Automatic annotation (TrEMBL), chain A:
The keyword Translocase does not apply. Its cofactor is [4Fe-4S] cluster. It is found in: Cell membrane. Gene3D superfamilies: 3.30.70.20, Single helix bin. [4Fe-4S] cluster 1 binds at residues 36, 39, 42, 176. This is Formate dehydrogenase (Quinone-dependent) iron-sulfur subunit. The lineage of its organism: Bacteria, Pseudomonadati, Pseudomonadota, Betaproteobacteria, Neisseriales. [4Fe-4S] cluster 2 binds at residues 46, 157, 160, 172. Binds 4 [4Fe-4S] clusters per subunit. [4Fe-4S] cluster 4 binds at residues 109, 130, 133, 136. One of its GO terms (biological process) is formate oxidation. Residues 27-57, 88-120, 121-150 form the 4Fe-4S ferredoxin-type domain. InterPro entries: 4Fe4S_Fe-S-bd, 4Fe4S_Fe_S_CS, FDH_Electron_Transfer_Unit, Formate_DH_bsu_Proteobacteria, Formate_DH_C_sf, Formate_DH_Fe-S_su, Formate_DH_TM. GO terms for molecular function: 4 iron, 4 sulfur cluster binding; metal ion binding.
TrEMBL record, chain B:
Keywords: Cell membrane, Electron transport, Heme, Iron, Membrane, Metal-binding, Transmembrane, Transmembrane helix, Transport. This is Formate dehydrogenase subunit gamma. It comes from Rivihabitans pingtungensis. InterPro entries: Cyt_b561_bac/Ni-Hgenase, Di-haem_cyt_TM, FDH_cytochrome_b556_subunit, Formate_DH_gsu. It is a multi-pass membrane protein. Pfam families: Ni_hydr_CYTB. GO terms for biological process: anaerobic respiration; formate oxidation; respiratory electron transport chain. The chain crosses the membrane at residues 18-42, 54-72, 114-135, 147-171. Belongs to the formate dehydrogenase gamma subunit family. Residues 8-183 form the Cytochrome b561 bacterial/Ni-hydrogenase domain.
Length: 290, 206
């Protein structure tokens, strides 16, 4: 059903071309970590719009709540304390799906149509086709997808693909009170980021920069970081994320190797039988065939 | 003249073998479906794709347990001897249908296959448990799960190719299927393919 949007860049486990007639503009969500106040309005908006409710947990001594992404919490604020340039810094990062241009989840997924990558850059899970194997969890370089214990389907941020499809911004963007989350074409968001980064540099953050990691082909959720040289400071945001070599081997090289190996075994048997012929015991075994 | 027969596999051994074989076929079909996108429809072997995901690992556990029973039945018959090395080196001659060496219950090729299967089964069990998302994968770091998935697929491919050879060898050497279906082989079969075992079983000089 999703294919009717005719703007499908990739569909999981689908070796043939997807309906690509339309070419919408590439979108991106820009999260300016330096203007985020950690109010969690985005978490609430996400929960509201998507109608998902994580259980109210308990305080674990820090502000993080829920403490991790779940099938019912597609975005969480992560709070990190660090000392940079002799000053305490409180770094708050809104975590969730990065909507990679080269999505590891989609590469790993074995079920046709369970993961869809739209041409606008959104990577969406279609639970109707999800079989619950969890390969997407292993494929993701950002540790984002979560399997619901209730229905064994994988869930994650959809970048509000339903809202974006009708020209609205994602719910988290709409609700952010400081404008730390913005949404638009990827090109525009890069421009917004560059203005912001120049400002941060002026204010002494020499290493301010945009997080749009090349290793996954760029992302459609980008961060403005004051310490772009050390993304790990932000609750272990990976420095050079990429689809793991293990996953690439598994989903890449191993397939042709397996085909060759299995075909070789089968074809060897077939041709051996029609050339050498069966090995019968009733023939006198002292006599060798010439 | 009445056909002279030797018992090669008892009924429990045969049942054991076919339990493993049926599990293997179901696992290979559903496993290939998870591996090759174009063959995803093979998940239909278990009804629906979701059911295939649910059932595959349980069938795997059954196969492992049944195979473990076989391991304890046969391991001591499969210790590699110099005679087996000779067999392996002359495999080209063997492929022409000419027997090489004074073969006991199993030849070098069968023994090699036995140990390949043991290795694959061990890897498949361990990696399969680690990758079993519903119950166990959550206890392992993601890089470990990735390695398990790669190892699981690799071992499965090796096992599938190995089993193709195993089945073909049984089809090629006439009279072999009977050993695993009816449990018996003819004297001629034993004398030709496993002369030492033939002597042990009959007390004859061959």
């Amino acid at each position: 059903m999703a294919l009717q949007s005719l703007d499908i860049l990739r569909r999981s486990a689908t070796p043939t071309a997807t309906p690509q007639a339309r070419t919408p503009v590439e979108v991106a969500k820009l999260i300016d970590v330096s203007t985020c106040i950690g109010c969690k309005a985005c978490q609430v908006a996400c929960s509201e719009w998507n109608d998902i409710r994580e259980e109210v947990g308990s305080c674990v001594g820090v502000y993080d709540n829920p403490v991790d992404l779940t099938a019912q919490a597609w975005t969480v604020m992560r709070f990190a304390e660090t000392e940079e340039n002799g000053k305490l810094e409180w770094l708050i990062r809104k975590d969730g799906c990065m909507h990679c241009a080269d999505p590891g989840c989609l590469k790993a997924c074995p079920s046709p149509g369970a993961i869809i990558q739209y041409k606008n850059g959104i990577v969406d899970f279609h639970q109707e086709n999800c079989i619950g194997c969890g390969y997407c969890v292993a494929g993701c370089p950002f540790n984002v997808p979560r399997l619901s214990p209730a229905d064994n389907k994988a869930y994650k941020c959809s970048l509000c693909s339903d809202r974006v499809a009708v020209g609205q911004e994602p719910a988290c963007v709409k609700t952010c009170p400081t404008g730390a989350i913005q949404f638009g074409s990827k090109e525009d968001m890069k421009e917004v980021a560059s203005v912001r980064i120049a400002d941060l540099k002026n204010r002494g953050y020499q290493n301010a920069g945009l997080y749009d990691p090349e290793g996954v082909g760029g992302t459609h959720v980008m961060y403005v970081l004051h310490h772009a040289d050390k993304p790990e400071l932000y609750s272990n945001l990976p420095k050079d994320p990429a689809i793991s070599a293990t996953v690439s081997l598994w989903k890449g090289l191993l397939k042709p190797l397996a085909t060759l190996g299995i075909a070789a075994a089968g074809l060897f048997g077939f041709f051996h039988y029609i050339t050498v012929g069966p090995n019968r015991p009733d023939e006198d075994h002292e006599e060798t065939r010439k | 003249m009445k056909e002279q027969l030797i018992q090669r596999y008892s009924a429990p051994e045969r049942i054991n073998h076919w339990v493993v074989a049926v599990c293997f076929v179901l696992l290979a079909i559903s496993g290939l479906a998870f591996f090759y996108p174009a063959f995803f429809w093979l998940t239909g072997v278990f009804g629906t794709p979701q059911l295939a995901r649910i059932v595959h690992p349980f069938v795997g556990v059954v196969m492992f347990l049944a195979f473990a029973r076989q391991f304890f039945r046969y391991w001591h018959h499969n210790l590699i001897t110099p005679e087996d090395v000779k067999w392996m080196k002359s495999v080209k001659e063997v492929m022409k249908g000419n027997e090489v060496g004074d073969i006991g219950k199993y030849n070098g090729g069968q023994k090699g296959m036995f140990w390949l299967m043991c290795a694959c089964m061990a890897v498949l069990l361990v990696s399969g448990l680690i990758a079993w998302r519903q119950y166990f994968a959550g206890y392992f770091p993601i890089p470990v799960v990735r390695l398990a998935l790669l190892a699981h697929a690799s071992a499965a491919v090796a096992l599938i190719a190995g089993i193709i050879v195993h089945v073909y060898a049984a089809l090629w050497v006439k009279g072999t299927i009977r050993a695993m279906v009816e449990g018996v082989v003819t004297h001629a079969w034993a004398k030709k393919h496993h002369p030492r075992w033939y002597r042990e079983m009959t007390g004859k000089k061959s």
